[in-house]
TrEMBL record:
It is found in: Cell membrane. Residues 45-129 form the Ig-like domain. One of its GO terms (biological process) is cell-cell adhesion. It comes from Leptotrombidium deliense. SMART domains: IG (SM00409), IGc2 (SM00408). The keyword Hydrolase does not apply. SUPFAM superfamilies: Immunoglobulin. This is Down syndrome cell adhesion molecule-like protein Dscam2. InterPro entries: Ig-like_dom, Ig-like_dom_sf, Ig-like_fold, Ig_I-set, Ig_sub, Ig_sub2, Neural/epithelial_adhesion. Keywords: Cell membrane, Disulfide bond, Glycoprotein, Immunoglobulin domain, Membrane, Repeat, Signal. The keyword Membrane applies. Pfam families: I-set (PF07679). GO terms for cellular component: neuron projection; plasma membrane. Gene3D superfamilies: Immunoglobulins (2.60.40.10).
Length: 179
């Protein structure tokens, strides 16, 4: 034991959808370390549900297509009936990851489809929606000294104030924090 923290993942009665990439990460004050490993479950392609993504314009997105089934011949992405990549800002990797550099609302927002196919021609598809938020200045109206209204523009990063949880919480209690 030696004071080590040991973490286990136990999968009983493994199913096709249990296949895919697993990641273990350990973090402490001295740093962090991680290790990823893929579990390959023999069977037809299966793609797990992907959450829709919202990204700020100008940022880079890395989207993984969570495919299981083995063996998989090809993983591809499409948008609007067109196979990706369609420009120099997009790239599809062999492992099914899609990268979009410098996200642009007009060019990149929409529905994307990931397709996985095996040697037998069996395939699975799953879609997700990408929303690109425009970078815009927020205008705030404030009244100073109650004499005249003033409009000004702020271009600052948001700030999150620290919060903590009470030590004496018990099941069934209600609490509220402000973020």
């Amino acid at each position: 034991y030696n004071g080590d923290v040991v973490s286990f993942v136990n999968i009983s009665n493994i199913r096709l959808e249990d296949g895919g990439l697993y990641n273990c990460e350990a973090i402490n004050d001295a740093g962090n370390v991680s290790h990823s490993e893929t579990i390959a479950v023999i069977g037809a392609p299966f793609i797990k549900v992907m959450k829709n993504i919202t990204v700020l314009a100008g940022h880079t997105m890395l989207i993984r297509c969570p495919v299981s089934g083995y063996p998989i011949s090809k993983i591809s992405w499409s948008r609007g009936g067109r196979q990706l990549p369609i420009n120099e800002r997009t790239k599809v990797f062999e492992n099914g990851s899609l990268i979009i550099i410098d996200a642009n609302r007009e060019l990149d927002e929409g529905n994307y489809i990931c397709t996985a196919i095996n040697e037998k021609g069996e395939k699975a598809t799953r879609n997700l929606h990408i929303q690109v938020l425009s970078k815009h200045k927020q205008c705030f109206n404030r009244t100073f000294f109650s004499f005249f209204p003033v409009s000004f523009t702020l271009e600052e990063k948001p700030v999150i104030s620290a919060f903590s949880f009470p030590q004496s919480l018990t099941e069934g209690m209600q609490m509220m924090i402000t973020c």
